[in-house]
Amino acid sequence: MTQSQQNYARWSGRTLYDSNGEKVGQVGRLWTDDEDGHPTWLTARTGMFGTGESFVPVQGVRDREDGNLESRYSKEMIKDAPRVDPDSTPRGEHIDRAEEDRLYRHYQLTGTGQSGTASGGDGHDTSGPTTDEAMTRSEERLRVGTQQRERGRARLRKYVVTETEQVEVPVSREEVRVEREPITDANRERAVDGPAISDEEHEMTLHEERPVVDTEAVPVERVRLAKERVQDTETVSGEVRKEHIETDTDSGLEGRRG
Fold first, then answer.
1. Which of the pair, 47 or 33, is modelled with greater confidence?
2. Domain total of the chain
């Protein structure tokens, strides 16, 4: 047994998943080509309680990081494939030509199986519908979108700050000024009213203004919170897979990659 055949033999008992990561079933057995001994089909237990097995092409099956296997076909296509009862078919028995033809038609494949060349003259696209002589090349594209999440919260808070202000206030006061006037006929009578020589006092009250400080609360403005949407751009990246098509010839011509 070659190293490649030993690697395929280890697939038995592993869990098979489809192209979307959905569990299909446990791998039962491998079916090999009579001419080169290379595995071409495997069966996965997909029936109720694992009592039936569906054929899956080995081509396009790869190892997963968790140690299981993944097929490029969907679970629905695998479950709808021609089935075989593991109890009624001895291990290693050939698949008859008619059933293998049905498998190739179901998976839209062309090639040579255990019992000979599969039927069909048109080209078949393994990732799409039946075509003429062309093959469809597909690739993955990034699909991006946005989701809304809470970024933070804002609130208004009012607090009191004491400040000192200086204001210029005009004030007035009374001061004494001595005025002298000579004795005239107009004021003589008041001037000689009283003793000729005596001690005497005359008093007057002086007034002044003083600044008075008081406070009052006056509304000056209204403050509220408002939201506005700001548009920005962020760069995201992701891994995508692309299919490449190459040609193989057996006539000595060089193949050219597309």
1. 33
2. 1
